[in-house]
Amino acid sequence: MSGETITRFAPSPTGFLHIGGARTALFNWLWARHCGGKMLLRIEDTDRSRNSDEAVAAILDGLTWLGVTWDGAPVSQYSRVERHREVAQELVRRGEAYYCYASPQELEDMREKARSEGRPPRYDGRWRDRDPAEAPAGVAGAIRIKAPKEGETLVADNVQGDVRFPNSDLDDFIILRSDGNPTYMLAVVVDDHDMGVTDIIRGDDHLTNAARQTVIYRAMGWDVPSMAHIPLIHGPDGAKLSKRHGALGAEAYRAMGFLPEALTNYLVRLGWSHGDDEIMSIDQMIEWFDIGDVNKGAARFDVKKLEALNAHYIRSSDDKYLTDALVSVLPEIEGGAFFAERLTDIRRAQLLQAMPGLKERARTLVDLADGARFIFSERPLEMEEKAEKILAEGGRDVLAKILPVLEGVADWSVEATENAVRDFADVNELKLGKVAQPLRSSLTGRTTSPGIFDVLSVLGKDESVGRIRDQIA
């Protein structure tokens, strides 16, 4: 085996890049980068009935968005079928595999007999030592591996520890079906060997497969890669992760307004940690990550914790980066069409100007968009019920009095408008809130927004005065 660490991520293109797959890809990528090696990408697309080009595109897009890169071109497992057949034939020639001509009815009878005797349903090896000349005419046989009958197969796992499987439990499983198509078990081993994979990191639901695949490696005289079977992700209630918990695709989290670096930071902490560090840069993750430090127990996915982490990343992000991130996701977020249709260069500049105030109260990019709605709203504004109530209960009288004051402000800046409003409140013996609330209602149609002086500055004098006039009228 080469000295270079080579990992692989091998998704089946039957849907989106779900959150568990994203974490598996991330762990493979981090371990490869930590060791100065490579991560390869293999698309396990042998099930032609369930695979789609759209799913492949969604997986590649999800990985790219998360910043998880791969080395070389993605490998199609389906394109390697001839190589898989070649290895199956080689195993027969070596005496490590054989043709089995058991009929579907015979196999069903075997299963029934085992069940009636309280045994696990397994193939009974009836063609293991028979002469192929006894094969029924015109019947294409399947190829089965000659699994060892005695002893045990050891999987030395970097996460689970040494796991031992009695060979009596493995049976002579099929590696090439009678139609000439390889099974998953064979294809994975051949591909991992040919691609030079040294470290296999995948979900612990593959742990039993690891024993069977070890049998194939040994039958071919190949080195068995180092293995690490990571625990699955559960919901906050401890149950297997489902859609109600957040078992969605990467694109769903993008549409919910999560930043890729926040999701990556959250995923790396699901089952692995570095002391008490919660916030980690990519460089720190690469430096600190060790596959041997992954926990054995299932990690729990908590959307609330992800939101809190995302809020941190939003607050600490560069304003232009956030503006660009929000604009890029507008077509995907719920209600994003409202903003996308009204986006102009002027409004984009206003969005950037407002970002310092917007990001302080946002947990997601969706929150950012909602906070920025006042920029995209067009006159006359629709009033929320609470905002209308403030205006109706004396707010419009305040607006009528302060309008000429604001019209007289020459240098329209945060400082100038704040001085004008505060002076007005002092002269009229009003608390600042009694002036700010009607102003906020008239300028945004809402009772919550970034700081009112920021709002005045972002909208500019003409738009601000116009919106106030609309409400007085």
UniProtKB/TrEMBL annotation:
EC annotation from Swiss-Prot or TrEMBL: 6.1.1.17
Keywords carried by this UniProt record: Aminoacyl-tRNA synthetase, ATP-binding, Cytoplasm, Ligase, Nucleotide-binding, Protein biosynthesis
Limits of the Aminoacyl-tRNA synthetase class I anticodon-binding domain: 339-472
Motif ('KMSKS' region): 240-244
Reaction(s) the record says it catalyses: tRNA(Glu) + L-glutamate + ATP = L-glutamyl-tRNA(Glu) + AMP + diphosphate
GO biological process, one term: glutamyl-tRNA aminoacylation
SUPFAM superfamilies in the cross-refs: An anticodon-binding domain of class I aminoacyl-tRNA synthetases, Nucleotidylyl transferase
Glutamyl/glutaminyl-tRNA synthetase class Ib catalytic domain location: 7-307
UniProt-annotated stretches for the region Disordered: 109-133
InterPro entries: aa-tRNA-synth_I_cd-bd, aa-tRNA-synth_I_codon-bd_sub2, aa-tRNA-synth_I_CS, aa_tRNA-synth_I_cd-bd_sf, Glu-tRNA-ligase_bac/mito, Glu/Gln-tRNA-synth, Glu/Gln-tRNA-synth_Ib_cat-dom, GluQ/Sye
Any one GO molecular function term: tRNA binding
One GO term describing the cellular component: cytosol
Major place of residence: cytoplasm
Superkingdom as given in the UniProt entry: Bacteria
Motif annotated as 'HIGH' region, chain positions: 11-21
Gene3D superfamilies registered for this protein in UniProt: 1.10.10.350, HUPs (3.40.50.620)
Compartments, as annotated in UniProt: Cytoplasm
Known partners and oligomeric status: Monomer.
Record-linked HAMAP family: Glu_tRNA_synth_type1
Family: Belongs to the class-I aminoacyl-tRNA synthetase family. Glutamate--tRNA ligase type 1 subfamily.
Protein name as annotated: Glutamate--tRNA ligase
